[in-house]
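[job 0412] stage=complex_fold ligand=guanosine-5'-monophosphate status=START
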Amino acid sequence: MSEKNGKIFVISSPSGGGKTSIVRRILSEFPEIVFSVSATTRPKRPDEIDGVHYFFLTEEQFLEKIKNDEFIEWERFYDYYYGTLKTFVIDNIQDGKSVLLEIDVKGALSVKKIFPDSILIFIDVPSFEELVNRLKKRKTESEADLQKRIDRAKMELSYKDKFDYIFVNKDLEEVTSQIKSLIKDILKKEK
Ligand code: 5GP
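[job 0412] stage=complex_fold status=DONE, emitting structure tokens
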């Protein structure tokens, strides 16, 4: 075990807010930060790898983990379950590594309750219309799923004031560099 625990960074944004691209860039800049691989019952997308992007579980397996208290938090939406695994996060931070969680707003607030020192970052969109356009362009979902994600985005935006930091994603490079500077400062203070 390391002398000092690692930090927990949580990034949330509405679907289509650009968080996946931002997270990818942050991880490539900070090799000392580990991505928290969540468990989910959602079907795997073609470009996703089991154990890297998510642990893809059956509903039965997921419910078993809930029963065994294996999650820090979990949520059910769009008919699927998503959850942050206790062992994954706790083992890493106790090892002195920082962990980055890319989870929804409610999950983020649950993490903050359990780990008050965690840093919650919300990535906002310049406008709601732009968000809808981004979601439509993505074409990874059916029409029905798309509408669910739009409704959910409205809900997620209503939680943003509860976050420690809010960044507006007008320009991917710019917002990424702002978030990187924040993380750099926080990690430097910890040393
Ligand atoms: P997607 O299906 O697009 O990968 O993710 C849908 C939503 O689930 C996103 O907002 C994503 O951040 C969130 N999510 C992913 N993993 C978790 C998790 O472990 N817990 C919670 N609460 N949300 C998650």
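The chain has a mean pLDDT of 92.
[job 0412] exit 0
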